[in-house]
């Protein structure tokens, strides 16, 4: 008899301030994914990596070639997870240098096939395309599986004043959360013990779950 393990969800927040709108968006996305999986009867274990807290460790790793225990733990959190939520502030029309540096110390093959939901925050909606021309290519290079909906939150998106353009943030968060949850539910062996006899789901069928009906 097989025993289902909890799905492991890693959350990367590259915000620099406390509190941080980047962390707020990461938390909202996490709750959306958790709600979808809970409704489907799946347990989720969430581990959050605040990249700000290991910034010095990342810099020392570049100089020495050896990760500190805290950095090793953060890398293990990401590479061993069933799925990943990665959120960065946008600086100068792209992801932050700290966000990129963290993924630079992870092996290029470590995220192969891993479902990823990307998000970003910024002061103006003009930076929203950074998700498509910066973050999506980054994770495509790492051969991760990026869900279709990427979520950008500008300063004006928080609060809601009846504007049909800015008041869509909760809708986008829920849609992205559903897409990542759909992939996690259909992972071959995801969240199950190694002796489980679960049939392998072809990758094309996994992607089909994300298509609108």
From TrEMBL:
<keyword id="KW-0288">FMN</keyword>
<dbReference type="Pfam" id="PF03358">
    <property type="entry name" value="FMN_red"/>
</dbReference>
<dbReference type="InterPro" id="IPR051814">
    <property type="entry name" value="NAD(P)H-dep_FMN_reductase"/>
</dbReference>
<keyword id="KW-0560">Oxidoreductase</keyword>
<protein>
    <submittedName>
        <fullName>FMN reductase</fullName>
        <ecNumber>1.5.1.-</ecNumber>
    </submittedName>
</protein>
<feature type="domain" description="NADPH-dependent FMN reductase-like">
    <location>
        <begin position="8"/>
        <end position="158"/>
    </location>
</feature>
<dbReference type="InterPro" id="IPR005025">
    <property type="entry name" value="FMN_Rdtase-like_dom"/>
</dbReference>
<keyword id="KW-0285">Flavoprotein</keyword>
<dbReference type="InterPro" id="IPR023932">
    <property type="entry name" value="CE1759_FMN_reduct"/>
</dbReference>
<dbReference type="InterPro" id="IPR029039">
    <property type="entry name" value="Flavoprotein-like_sf"/>
</dbReference>
<dbReference type="GO" id="GO:0016491">
    <property type="term" value="F:oxidoreductase activity"/>
</dbReference>
């Amino acid at each position: 008899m097989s025993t289902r393990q909890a799905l492991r969800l890693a959350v990367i927040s590259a915000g620099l301030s406390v509190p941080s709108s980047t962390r707020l968006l990461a938390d909202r996305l996490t709750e959306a994914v958790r709600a979808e999986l809970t409704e489907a009867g799946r347990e989720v274990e969430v581990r959050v990596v605040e990249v700000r807290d290991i910034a010095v460790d990342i810099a020392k790793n570049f100089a020495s070639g050896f990760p500190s225990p805290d950095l090793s733990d953060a890398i293990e959190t990401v590479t061993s997870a069933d799925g990943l939520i990665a959120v960065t502030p946008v600086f100068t029309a792209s992801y932050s240098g700290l966000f990129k540096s963290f993924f630079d110390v992870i092996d290029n093959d470590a995220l192969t096939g891993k479902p990823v939901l990307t998000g970003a925050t910024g002061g103006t909606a003009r930076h929203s395309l950074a998700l498509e021309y910066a973050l999506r290519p980054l994770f495509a290079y790492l051969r991760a599986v990026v869900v279709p909906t990427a979520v950008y939150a500008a300063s004006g998106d928080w609060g809601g004043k009846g504007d049909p353009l800015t008041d869509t943030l909760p809708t986008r968060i829920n849609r992205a959360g559903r897409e990542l949850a759909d992939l996690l539910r259909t992972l071959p062996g995801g969240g199950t013990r190694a002796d489980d006899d679960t049939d392998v789901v072809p990758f094309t069928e996994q992607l089909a779950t994300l298509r609108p009906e």
